[in-house]
Amino acid sequence: MKVIFAGTPEFARVALDALLAAGFNVPLVLTQPDRPAGRGMKLQASPVKQCAIAHGIELAQPQSLRLDGKYPEVAAAAKAAIEAAQADVMVVAAYGLILPQWVLDTPRLGCLNIHASLLPRWRGAAPIHRAIEAGDPETGVTIMQMDAGLDTGDMLLVDRTAITDRDTTATLHDRLAEMGGRLIVQALGLAGRTGLEATPQPPEGVTYAHKIDKGESLIDWSQSAEVIARRVRAFDPFPGAATQLGAEAIKVWNCKIDSCQRPPDARDGQILLVSDDGIDVACGAGSVLRLTTLQRAGGKRLPAAQFLRGFALAPGMVLAA
Questions:
Q1: Is residue 38's pLDDT more than 80?
Q2: Alpha carbon distance 33, 103 (integer Å)
């Protein structure tokens, strides 16, 4: 079976590796144009591009696939490459470009998407972050037949995993990426033998995982410790949960809900206790959160005991968003 692959970040790279390891013929890879990244803001190839180059696969990096859009010549060149590949199917994983109808219609078996949620919950750009933030007990991967809507196509295969109270977006991402690679290999194997059974998404339970904005990183101490703890895990590694002490920005990377009761006269964000075990902070709903791993701007993530050696915190200080 000939497979065109379209994807950009590490999540997609894992799936491409799985397809290649399983012996699928991948004549063409689509990925986003190189982007500036890092402190020097130098152009960097996506993980998928690096994988394609390592395997000597033809590569296309169009800014758009819309023939009537801003880059018609680029889109036309991509169309020619896609048609020349004569692929049976296109596999899409976190590609980052909208696929116009001509792309969906070109491969014989259409386009299959690897989506990191249990559809129809968390359609959209940030399903892993939003599942943790919302306190979902489980999530998973859905292999979906793509249509013109935003993650609205029929479901072909689904696998599930529990979300633990220690999962961050980083750890859950890695687990789901591996699951996605395994599931797409299974899906293509079934497609080539017996075919896949398509199940329409139910109309109930639709939610949208809106793209993460850096502004969401600021901790609102009027929220409960439980809500804040989920957001800390959801925003690790990006954008990180942040708070302010005067002009100093502090990121919080690990925390746990404290069993002690918040004093009735404490303010939201007030530091209640400082020890090598962590910094206890008053939160909403009468709760207390213990901050156990922190980071100053330009510094490293440090356990509370080490952080406190270089940054004096004391009971009575108030952290702010």
A1: no
A2: 18
